[in-house]
TrEMBL record:
Signal peptide feature range: none
Cell cycle recorded as keyword: no
Entry keyword ATP-binding: yes
Identification of the protein by name: Ribose import ATP-binding protein RbsA
Enzymatic class: hydrolase
Gene: rbsA_1
InterPro entries linked to this entry: AAA+_ATPase, ABC_carbohydrate_import_ATPase, ABC_transporter-like_ATP-bd, P-loop_NTPase
Keywords associated with the record: ATP-binding, Hydrolase, Nucleotide-binding
GO MF entries: ATP binding; ATP hydrolysis activity
Domain (ABC transporter): residue spans on this chain: 5-249
Length: 257
């Protein structure tokens, strides 16, 4: 099966620091791929290269088998790649519906939209309501509610719903539960599984081993700027994964999973 994303020999240098050192990467259809590694191992850097947030110095990125060279994250987004950040990239003062459409607002049909750039608020609110309902998130009272009135978990829910609504290729989630409490994390993990059930593959960067082992189909272990190996979480324990990640234990081959 053609991978959704595959990257080969990616190199990214920042001055004298080599953040990614000839790394490979592969995301398969329908899977949750966790990306783990020590601080500074290069997890964010490799994922940024894949979503156009940075341009690699070397290497090749293929999306569904076709070479791509993104010059901005907008280009990646236009291709159906969505990102959910740990620091909740939502605008607190704007409503849920407005947040879902930031940067891709729907305009009124005809002259009003085309020439006067008038927004089609009812259409955006309807779409936002449908998407939140689909993901079981309609505990929020109103779609017009400002995001700042929501709990941390609800906000992350909106961010995940937005990504799920627009992603046609895959979603990248960078530490989506890091800022959340236990109960809120649970809800977000369930959402992540729901998104997978809808057929959208996910790249999940996380330091939280129980979360990774709960949801991941495969784990990409990053160390010193490159992919050390990929493992199937059913074949290894959390302490094995940490031992590979820190160099305490010899890893299995590059493609154990
Ligand atoms: N914009 C940048 N400028 C300079 N150095 C950078 C930049 N971004 C990343 N680096 C360096 O590249 C290396 C890899 O960083 P990266 O953020 O990808 O690691 P990470 O595995 O995501 O770490 P963490 O788990 O701490 O978020 C680090 O040494 C980091 O300091």
């Amino acid at each position: 099966m053609t991978p959704v994303v595959s990257a080969k020999g990616i190199v990214k240098r920042y001055g004298h620091v080599t953040a990614i050192d000839h790394s490979d990467f592969e995301l398969r259809p329908g899977e949750i791929l966790a990306v783990i590694g020590d601080n500074g191992a290069g997890k964010s850097s490799i994922v940024k290269a894949i979503c156009g947030a940075t341009t690699p110095d070397e290497g090749e990125i293929l999306i569904e088998g076709k070479p791509v060279k993104f010059s901005s994250p907008i280009e990646a987004r236009d291709m159906g790649i969505e990102i959910v950040y740990q620091n909740l990239a939502l605008s607190p003062a704007l409503s849920i519906a407005d947040n879902m459409f930031t940067g891709r607002e729907l305009r009124k049909p005809g002259f009003l939209g085309k020439f006067l750039r008038m927004l089609d608020k009812p259409a955006m609110e309807k779409f936002a309501r449908e998407k939140l309902t689909e993901l079981g998130l309609m505990t929020v009272q109103s779609i017009k509610q400002p995001v700042e009135t929501l709990s941390g978990g609800q906000r992350q829910g909106v961010a995940v719903a937005r990504a799920a609504a627009f992603a046609t290729k895959f979603i990248i989630m960078d530490e989506p539960t890091a800022a959340l409490g236990v109960k809120e994390s649970r809800k977000v993990l369930e959402l992540i599984k729901d998104v997978r059930a809808r057929g959208v593959p996910i790249i999940l960067i996380s330091h939280n081993m129980p979360h990774v082992f709960e949801v991941a189909d495969r784990i990409h272990i990053h160390r010193l700027g490159k992919r050390l190996c990929t493992i199937d979480p059913k074949d290894y324990t959390m302490s094995d994964a940490v031992a590979f990640m820190t160099g305490a234990k010899e890893p299995p081959g590059q493609d154990a999973a």
